[in-house]
Design brief:
alpha+beta; globular; 169 residues
Length: 169
């Protein structure tokens, strides 16, 4: 199945807000899945240097040729990630998305999943959508979205560099 803005809406995703205009307090605090989508008419222009923060003394920037190799021309979805409750139960979508956006603003991250997003010019025009899910469904849901995208496009979304899998499969 090809994952599009419409299929995400039909599966209960909400939000669909531009990163630059995102009101973090409107994002639920519960666990879930989130996706970064390109707006209609968006054409990739790669920055020479990422706006993302340094992770473990490593620059998140990639050469333009590597970015172009990851780009999927006909895809709406650029990244799919998950937001668990955390070990203390205080994480969830709001905190995960806030950290993701802060990472793009140069703050050091706890991880650097989705880092390719922050090497796109006009990343603020990209759209974030989310769907609340019970914790026990997160890994399977993320793996399914990655597998569905792969089936429709022959690879992963642009900023997903590792395919999520359900343990034991």
């Amino acid at each position: 199945m090809t994952i599009t803005k419409q299929t995400l809406k039909s599966e209960g995703f909400a939000g669909f807000r531009n990163i630059a205009a995102l009101d973090i307090n409107r994002i639920p605090q519960k666990p879930g899945i989130f996706a970064v989508l390109r707006p209609e008419g968006f054409q990739p222009q790669f920055l020479a240097k990422s706006t993302a923060g340094i992770f473990k003394k490593k620059d998140p920037s990639l050469p333009a040729v590597a970015l172009a190799a990851e780009w999927v021309d006909d895809a709406d979805v650029l990244y799919v990630g998950k937001a668990g409750p955390g070990s203390k139960g205080n994480r969830g979508l709001r905190r995960q998305i806030q950290e993701f956006v802060d990472f793009g603003k140069g703050k050091p991250p706890g991880h650097w999943d989705g880092r390719l997003i922050w090497q796109l010019a006009a990343a603020g025009s990209l759209i974030i959508a989310w769907r609340e899910l019970p914790t026990e469904q997160l890994n399977a849901a993320e793996a399914r979205y990655h597998a569905d995208f792969h089936a429709g496009h022959g690879g992963l979304p642009f900023a997903n560099l590792v395919q999520a899998r359900v343990k034991g499969r």
